[in-house]
Amino acid sequence: MSETLNGAAFDAVTVHNFSEKISEQVVHFHVMKLSGGFFLWVGSTPVLSNLAVSMSSKYDSMPLSTLVMGDPSDTAANSLAQRLAKKTKKQVFVSYSIPMKDSSLGLLVENRIKKELELHPEHF
Hints:
Elements: E1 2-5, E2 8-11, E3 14-22, E4 25-34, E5 37-43, E6 51-57, E7 60-69, H1 76-88, E8 91-97, H2 103-119
Parallel strand pairs: 5-8
Antiparallel strand pairs: 1-2, 3-4, 4-5, 6-7, 6-8
């Protein structure tokens, strides 16, 4: 959706929320579509504990990725941002606020995101 402000066209920020019970835990997803990319928050409680950003580069097949804030030893947000940037060819911001008690939980969460990407690509 494009809007104009003082004669200049720009893409409006759109918001898409969805939730799912994964491994006995309710996981919430919040997507904000931005011009040329999107912000994805994943969590079970309303906390922004980290933030990673990733984007494609003409110099490497793997997108560039960095942790903007949070614990550098927790690589979940960085890794997810990088995989989503590679898949969507967009700049991706990710905040991943789910405790990793179960190693399969991360894979199930990522599969749910991929499913939503396939069902509703217009929100990303």
